[in-house]
Amino acid sequence: MTPNPSYAVAANPVHHDGNSLHVLFAGESQTSPLHALGPKIYDYYLLHFIEKGNGTFRTEHHIYELGEGSCFLIHPGQLVSYVSDTKHPWRYRWVAFIGQDAHNIVAEAGFVDNHSVFTFIKEHSHIPTAISRMQEVFYTKKESAHMASLGYLYLILAEAQDVLSSQSRLTGTESQVQRTVKQMILYMSTQFAHPVSIEQMCDSLGYNRAYLSRIFKKETGLSPVTYLLKLRIDKSRQLLLERPELSIEQIASSVGITDALYFSRQFTRFCSMSPSAYRNRIGRKPGGSSQL
After folding, report:
1. What CATH number is attached to the domain comprising 118?
2. d(Cα 234, Cα 240) in Å, to the nearest integer?
3. Which H or E run contains 209?
4. Residue 241, CA atoms < 13 Å, CB-side half-sphere
5. CA dist list (Å): 44 to 25, 75, 107, 190, 262
6. How far apart are CA 229 and CA 257, in angstroms?
7. How confident is the prediction for the chain on average, in pLDDT?
8. pLDDT digits over 73-108, tens only?
9. How many beta carbons lie within 10 A of that of residue 56, not counting itself?
10. What are 47's strand-pairing partners?
């Protein structure tokens, strides 16, 4: 027996005023047999999640037969059409969003090239619940609905990123070693201001230190210890010029080195002069960041 058609949509009560990311509306529908849209284009991103049923999604270059657990993202200006199955029509939820940062965010989530369609391999997806919560907060008509909808949108895109990155691993677009090294670089780039150690990073990433040191050296040419120290020295050089009111001890602490004497020795090792000499010499050059 074919379910009775239904349709509900809730719009964001907060007007889009050039926000970097903005959810326009969210909705749900039990479509009727052969329910069709397009061919047409949209001027916003429109993501659908199929809860039940079957149907066909078409772009200018591809045709996808999609069923339960599938998700497809329509990009602005993309010519598309989609139609529900005769016997088992789609029940789906959707969310529309726009904004200056939307393109970069969906690309970061993995929606690039032909990766605008995927089928979840998880037993349960949080996407339909997140879209449902969006509808609920929009119905309240509160100003806070805008912020809440962004939170739910990020949760949706985070789950999509998990699936799309998993699919990328299966196709071998990036090796596990390369991804792990990127994670190490990200960890050090965000944690260098704290007195973290390589051991702590290894524990955080869940790998043996010897293994991480070996793959990192192979990919970057530097050991993790040297890379982290160089990162800290590079940042300290910037602070020496831009913050003349800070003492050498304060700068050392600001880049995660608690021993000012050790900092001075390592700075001299990398820059062939002491921190004080560097500040005085470079800061007095024409165009220098500071004049002491």
Report:
1. 2.60.120.280
2. 10
3. helix 209-220
4. 15
5. 11, 7, 15, 33, 54
6. 9
7. 87
8. 999 988 999 999 999 999 999 999 999 999 999 988
9. 15
10. 73, 95
2-33 burial: b if 16+ Cβ within 10 Å, else e: eeeeeeeebbbbbeeeebebbbbbbbbbbbbb
Asked if residue 39 has a cis previous peptide bond (ω within 30° of 0), the answer is: yes
Cα separation, 270 vs 274, in Å, equals: 10
Measured from the Cβ of residue 137, the count of other Cβ atoms closer than 10 Å reads 22
CA distance 216 to 201: 13
Compute the distance between CA of residue 88 and CA of residue 68 in angstroms, rounded to an integer: 11
pLDDT in tens, 171-224: 444 567 888 888 899 889 988 998 888 888 888 888 888 989 999 998 889 999
| Residue 111 lies in domain | 6-171
| Same domain, yes or no: 187 and 66 | no
Cα–Cα nearest to 23, from 155, 116, 117: 155
Tell me which residue of 270, 277, 271 sits closest to 292, measured CA to CA.
277
1 within some domain: no
87 CB-near residues (< 8 Å, 6+ apart): 2, 33
Compute the Cα dihedral for 257, 263, 267, 273 and give only its sign.
positive
Count of the separate structural domains present in the chain: 2
Instruction: Give residues with Cβ within 8 angstroms of 140, minimum separation 6.
Output: 13
How big is the chain, counted in residues?
292
236 is a domain residue: yes
Q: What is the DSSP letter of 20?
A: S
